Amino acid sequence: MKNITVIGAGTMGNGIAHVFAQNGFQVKLVDISEKALEKGVATITRNLDRLLSKEKISLETKESTLSNINCHTELTDGLSNADLVVEAATENVDLKKNIFQQIDELSPEKAILATNTSSISITQIAAVTSRPDKVIGMHFMNPVPIMKLIEVIRGYSTSDAVTKQIMELSETLGKVPVEVNDYPGFIANRILMPMINEAIYSLYEGVAGVYEIDTVMKLGMAHPMGPLQLADFIGLDVCLSILKVLFDGFGNPKYAPCPLLVNMVTAGKLGVKSGEGFYDYTASRKAETISKQFS
After folding, report:
1. What is the pLDDT of residue 188?
2. What is the DSSP letter of 295?
3. Which of 36, 106, 111, 285 could be cross-linked to 280 through a Cys-Cys bond (beta carbons 3.0 to 4.6 Å apart)?
4. Of 118, 202, 241, 274, catalytic
5. Is 151 a catalytic site residue?
């Protein structure tokens, strides 16, 4: 397995492409937008420069990583010789189904199809393909080049052989893969999102302020960042989407998104990526972004 196709050049997609390319794989990065591809490669270059400045990689590694990445705006070109396709598009079930129908038709018969979804059913995605035994979840953590975990999610029909291959492949990337089964939110977000939602409810109900809630969790529970700060980093729209998946999947009121979260997303306050969430990230406030903690 040497030829990897990554669908989507956004935050997760360019991070996944970076990690595969740095480990010697030939990567085709695919996005419908040329601008998104340029931005994605620019992000990879900046992250490589940061690693180079800290002497964590050599100049040769930087150059070889970038040379291992080729960009495409057409799926046909990007999928022609893929051994593994990793989809990293927006967390929307209909969009992902549409993408998987296309990549199933255009990818070589041997190719494994993986999704980076953080909550959507692998079984549901696999059902629109002709190869459900070769569909699997590879939930990378953000920022991908830094975080060690890959949550490997087996769909109902995912074969033992494919699961074993993806577990071993994840280890070659220097990651720690953990195998889980296909239920709403898997493990990471089934545990994390209710905590974030409860923190938002605590703010909504006036129990404590943003700084106070995050400080309690950082200093009292040894979390590297507080739940509200983490929500800003993930994206409040993504948090809301995952909570909706959990609520729809289990039908339990404990997963119902807090009204404050719903209102903030409706108002466009999405966290770091929009410049404002529970914290202000605009230049005028000189707020420190979460990403600096991982640099």
Report:
1. 95
2. -
3. 285
4. 118
5. yes
Annotated active-site residue 241? The verdict is no
* Topology of domain 190-294, CATH: N-(1-d-carboxylethyl)-l-norvaline Dehydrogenase; domain 2 (1.10.1040)
Q: What is the pLDDT of residues 22-70, one digit of tens each?
A: 999 999 999 999 999 999 999 999 999 999 999 999 999 999 999 999 9
Q: Are 260 and 203 in contact (CB under 8 A)?
A: yes
First CA to last CA across the chain, in angstroms?
A: 30
C-alpha 98/C-alpha 129 separation (Å) is 10
pTM of the model: 0.89
pLDDT category, 282, cuts 50, 70, 90?
A: confident
Please give the CATH number for the structural domain made up of 3-181: 3.40.50.720
- CB of 28 closer than 8 Å to CB of 51: no
Residues belonging to the chain: 295
181 counts as catalytic: no
**Residue-range domain boundaries for the chain:** 3-181, 190-294
Choose the catalytic residue: 68, 116, 121, 189. 189
Catalytic residue of the set 107, 151, 197, 241:
151
